[in-house]
Amino acid sequence: MAKKVTKKVTKKETKKEKIDKSKKLIQALKNHGAQIYEDLENGEFPKFSIPNRSISNIIYDKKLRQYVLGTNASLRSARNSSQLRSFTQLLWLAFFANKLTHEKKSSTLRDVYYSSQAFAVDFEDQQESDNIIVDLEAVLSQPREDFFVFPEERSSIFGDLTIEYTIPGYEGKTQNLSSHPDGYAIGPSMTSAQLTDTSAEMVIAIEKGGLFTRFVEEQVDKKFKSIIINTGGQAPRSTRTLLKRLHDELGLPVVILTDGDVYGEHIAMVIKSGSANAAHLRELTVPDAKWMGVWATDIDKFKLPTIPMTESDIKRCYDLLKDPRYEEGLWKRELEVFIKIKRKAELEAFSKYGLTNITEKYLPKKLEESKSF
Amino acid sequence: MAKKVTKKVTKKETKKEKIDKSKKLIQALKNHGAQIYEDLENGEFPKFSIPNRSISNIIYDKKLRQYVLGTNASLRSARNSSQLRSFTQLLWLAFFANKLTHEKKSSTLRDVYYSSQAFAVDFEDQQESDNIIVDLEAVLSQPREDFFVFPEERSSIFGDLTIEYTIPGYEGKTQNLSSHPDGYAIGPSMTSAQLTDTSAEMVIAIEKGGLFTRFVEEQVDKKFKSIIINTGGQAPRSTRTLLKRLHDELGLPVVILTDGDVYGEHIAMVIKSGSANAAHLRELTVPDAKWMGVWATDIDKFKLPTIPMTESDIKRCYDLLKDPRYEEGLWKRELEVFIKIKRKAELEAFSKYGLTNITEKYLPKKLEESKSF
């Protein structure tokens, strides 16, 4: 039997990091607020400098292996009457973010939209308030989760990982994530927890809940010393944050298992290198993450039952080929095979060879292979 | 301080019930199999008798307060060449259900579709295999969850409830569901667990994850002695099963909180009395469950910000008015108000009055009111 390797993280370090993050955020908000006051006292129109998020300022950084914003920024000033509305909205949001962070109360994108109405701050619709939230992220270079604005989606996690909560009422309480086989929801308390202890040697992210359950039942966590994460389709940002933390703080490699289609390939890519939408943030990517499958080339290799690709599937392949991240290697090769075979296969397709075929045959083979790419 | 009332359920009873359920299912499958052999030995064509699930055989049972199937049944026989295909499919599924139940391996609707291919049983698409699964449910009068076929959707639960797992590898292990504030996923291990202990006096089901998190943060579980469930929109069947068990086994009243629109009203109705689609089952309803809000009449009463209803929202109201369950009382009244005001309001709309308005003002008021309807 293999020796159990336990990784223990120095608690003080992560705790400090967490506190620093909140402190850093509140300090940044304070600085921006002080600047506004200063402008007013000097008889000037108050303003924000906002990094430009338009396509022309989004650059793929090959060294960082993710999209980043260029150096262009624009001024949003109360002097310009056409900017007065969005200036006020942003100022209010900074105030509200400060309030949420101080009170440690989580909210959603939808909540922010409605909360603004209490202050007679007018947003046409949620699209408008969502945009201002992204502006504030760009101004602060911190994701909205840091100021307690969360999405609706949930995904879940299972495996031998002990966490220690930091949210009010739960500080210092610990939880081992191998004790509920249906999985633990990944929400504010999970992403803000300290990751204190694990015997796992890798993280396996899976696109689908049904497979997640299969993996738990087949004890993939024990057999492959892994933490299993159900991304529930495209991984929500809080899940990507957690994946990054598992990689960076615990040094765990991350492998990704998706359906064998262009959307699956892109789910893996977004975990690895982010989306252009979040080019203004750097906390959501795991550049070393590996897409383990299902590859287009696996379809033939493992004789999987397939479904024909639709016109829009094929168009999506051609679109991605123009993305700099798909310009070479595995990513390009697999897209080209999809285009050639015009067929796709789901994770459940392995069930043709028995329910445990995916965990007993496919997974070990691909894990072995993944050491070399 | 109020005295903590703890409900303890006799373990042996629920365990016995659970075992009986699996035994009952396996026995029923065995009987059907034996009948097929007998037919063959007698030189007859083998057959199944399948309760008719067409609209004409779906009746609203006012006493049971749910849809049920009438007494019409049809014979599916190997004699009839047009039925040979669906007869074979059903026979295979019965074999596969038996295998899953014996091995306690969970699968999904999608898995069943692919698994059939290992046996050269042909399904055109998943729609066809889904239909056969419903046929088998009707034949057995047991939901597919009993033979380990689960959906993809997940919802989650939080509160002072201790469960004891019955799935392999976890038998006898207990879990208290108040220890992970992001919630525990409701999957096979949760729905099959014994519900052993709780101090809660009610269950609050909420339509949205964001509100679920709010309720946990505001300690609604403690302040209102409740178990909180996030249905994630329309409640998945496994969640409805759990709601029923919390009501029936622990005697807990169930209240439901949805968006203030016709879809929210129907989410509550489906938890209460099921859907016509599941008229062949009786294990998924909580007839005593109460829809606490957001009512159409609450919109004006609580001065909520609203969104205009679309044409299709309004059409949906008129459609539901034809449903026998919406013929009277609260259900009819609220639909009529929606039609009159042509506006709807979401749960997040309360944020206009502060993030805690919903838990501090609305919830206590409606809980008090709900005692009288």
What does this protein structure show overall?
The first copy, chain A, is an alpha/beta fold and 373 residues long. The first copy, chain A, has 2 domains: 11-150, Arc Repressor Mutant, subunit A, CATH 1.10.10.10; 156-372, Dna Topoisomerase Vi A Subunit, Chain: A, domain 2. Chain A has helices at 11-41, 84-103, 109-115, 126-140, 188-191, 209-217, 220-223, 237-250, 262-273, 296-301, 311-321, 329-341, 357-369; strands at 7-8, 47-51, 58-61, 66-69, 73-77, 107-108, 149-150, 156-158, 161-164, 174-176, 184-185, 194-198, 202-206, 226-230, 254-257, 290-293, 307-308, 343-344. In chain A, helix 1 (11-41) runs antiparallel to helix 2 (84-103), helix 2 (84-103) crosses helix 4 (126-140) and helix 3 (109-115) crosses helix 4. The radius of gyration of chain A is 22 Å and the shape is globular. The two termini of chain A are 28 Å apart.
Short structural description:
2 copies of one chain form a homodimer. Chain A is of the alpha/beta class and 373 residues long.
Could you give the topology of this structure?
Two copies of one chain form a homodimer.
Chain A: E1 7-8, H1 11-41, E2 47-51, E3 58-61, E4 66-69, E5 73-77, H2 84-103, E6 107-108, H3 109-115, H4 126-140, E7 149-150, E8 156-158, E9 161-164, E10 174-176, E11 184-185, H5 188-191, E12 194-198, E13 202-206, H6 209-217, H7 220-223, E14 226-230, H8 237-250, E15 254-257, H9 262-273, E16 290-293, H10 296-301, E17 307-308, H11 311-321, H12 329-341, E18 343-344, H13 357-369
Parallel strand pairs in A: 6-7, 13-14, 13-15, 15-16
Antiparallel strand pairs in A: 1-12, 2-5, 3-4, 8-11, 8-14, 9-10, 9-12, 17-18
Helix pairs in contact in A: 1-2, 2-4, 3-4, 11-12
